Amino acid sequence: DNRIIEADTTEDQSGVQYDKSSAGWKALGRNCCLCSRAEFKAGQENVPILKRECTGDASESAILKCMELAIGSVAAYRQRNPKVCEIPFNSTNKYHVTVHETEDPDDPSYILCMKGVPERILDRCSTIFINGKEKVLDDEMKEAFNNAYLELGGLGERV
Predict the structure, then answer these.
(1) pTM surpassing 0.85?
(2) To the nearest 5 percent, what fractions of the chain are helix, strand and coil?
(3) Using one digit for the tens of pLDDT, what is the confidence trace for 59-103?
(4) Are 69 and 13 in contact (CB under 8 A)?
(5) Residue ranges covered by each domain of the chain
């Protein structure tokens, strides 16, 4: 929603800085849950989420843990939205794409999720979702995005 927020890393989510009911958060959460191959290793149900071991790289594991804390069972979310196909992340494309069925059995549409190197994603977008509305992605918005991306990158943050 055109804001930079810090992820809440508390186990009880007491430091949340965003509205979990907002359309923007729901769209981001959906993408984070579905466009990922990271999973928790088996047999850790009684281990605190932030201490669980995962399959997947460090970034994917961090996203998985964040979503598990914020919305609940990522595995259950994925079961409700089965993956139909994907283009795995690779060093040439520098993005990951997945396509999923919706959890509504009466909805014949699909959900496409994408993540990767920010400039590669931005190059493939014609619209942007801000404050619950899809808007045409103009040069001013692209510049604002790039400025935020560079600022965060300059601080050593993963974008």
Answers:
(1) yes
(2) 35, 20, 45
(3) 999 999 999 998 999 999 999 999 999 999 999 999 999 999 999
(4) yes
(5) 124-159
